Amino acid sequence: MYIEETEVERAGSNQKLVTRLNILWILAGIVSSVGMIIHSVALFDHFELTPDFSNFYQASYLIAHGHLYPYDTLFPFNYPHYGFPFLRSHSEFFLWALAPLVALFPNGLVLLVVQDLAIALTQILAALWIHKLFQNKHPIIEIASVTVFIFLNPWYYFSAFFDFHLEPFSMLFLLATAYTYLYDRRKLSVLFMFLVISTGDVPSTYLVGLGVGLFLVSMKKNRSALIIALVGGLVATAESALHFAEASSFFQRYGYLAGAHPPTTLIGLLLAIVIHPGILIETLRQNVPLTFPYLISGGPLGALNPVGLLTALVILAAPVLIQSSLFLSNYASFQVVSFEPILAVATTMVVLGAFNKTNKWKARTLKATFALSLVAALLTSFPNLFAAKDFNNTISQSTASTLSQVLTQIPKGAEVITGNGTNGRFAGRRLVYSLITFQGASVPICSHSTYIVVVADQGIADPSTAQAKVIGSFLLNDKSQVKETLSQGVVQVYHLTSKTTGYNLQFPANA
Predict the structure, then answer these.
(1) Residue 310 falls inside a structural domain
(2) Structural contact between residues 335 and 167, judged by C-beta atoms closer than 8 angstroms
(3) Residue 57 lies in a domain
(4) Which residues form the domain of 346?
(5) pLDDT digits over 208-266, tens only?
(6) 280 with 428, same domain?
(7) Which residues contact 361 (CB under 8 A, 6 or more apart)?
(8) Which of 10, 53, 119, 286 makes a 20 to 30 Å CA pair with 225?
(9) What does the pLDDT look like over 407-428, one tens digit per residue?
């Protein structure tokens, strides 16, 4: 009788702990979202929003105001100069679903907030999935795993701290696709699969890794997962072939692997790599080590699971094979963050397998490796978490206050030209262009009233003080059309009143 009561009491105690852990992970996600939103408000108030935010804000603003096929004017590289239809950037259809929020909250901050919420929801879903896998057992290991690999993982926060992108949404939808598929909610997984596709051509390729990984987990039970992989691959290929991925041409990014003679076909590129593998080997030697922090923070044991391994490999392949290492930097962590929650869940699956192994040495080895991975993740994550607090902290409060004043004084119908480092909040209009400082820069004049906002030595890519002086002298050389309306600190505002339109304003070579 005593034994039976003890078991009942123990069961009740375990159930309370289970309930508390569920609540704990939800509360942790809420705290995470609040922290990210506070940081987003600070970024917004300080005008720390650059072309990535500008592209999405301009497009969503135009969609919200009835321009259902918006034209992107803010990114003059890689495609027809100074503009092309936004949809042809990366096939990011999901922005049309977010546009009504911009209509309700018209200053653009809402984009940052919903991005923060998507990241926090991903953390909660991953934590609850890990909790479900543990099945009320090993609470200490569960707490350690979720805390270290999810809520102390810096890459979630870095992806929120640099502008706005749709990859955080693809991360949530990708995780939901995997979860609903593995728990036999296959129809719901199809919905999430198409939501992944709606976030762009690159996230569509993530489905290839996920689908093949799910299939390899159980080849008999998960045959339909190959459809997920096939659909993702076909959609990404079709979007590229139909020129709905103009912002990052495949051959423009990877053609260098063929050497001095860039190919025009995929077969040609593959043949060139096989014949001359040196460029590929050198790129991998340079970039692969940069992936280690992402793998360590997410849970490296997850690479022993097909879902974790293949999803991570496919997501990492795109930035790893680019010649520049920029896309693996802290600033670009949004490019690779989508495999982090899946890797953490896969790590849990591997760790739980260790408890079921009959070979004690294999089980002990896995458990010891898991303990070491926790320590390695903490050592990797903490320096980056501390670095995150100053992320994008490049514009002074006085400059931000002046820019806020300027923004309210510019009519909505006017054209605006402003620097790359501060143009985000000015992008809620049809005609807005980046003042990019390089030799031969020019900007189209499409309006009779154009405001040129020059901010010296602020933001990530604004003109230097010397360049700002050159620009000012150049503009004021024609005082019949240009007036300086404000000069305060490092901010100068010029108003160009043009009798004609449809010409390019050519800046001096030293601007």
Answers:
(1) yes
(2) yes
(3) no
(4) 2-48+108-388
(5) 999 999 999 999 899 999 999 999 999 998 988 888 887 776 777 888 888 877 777 77
(6) no
(7) none
(8) 119
(9) 999 998 899 999 888 889 999 9
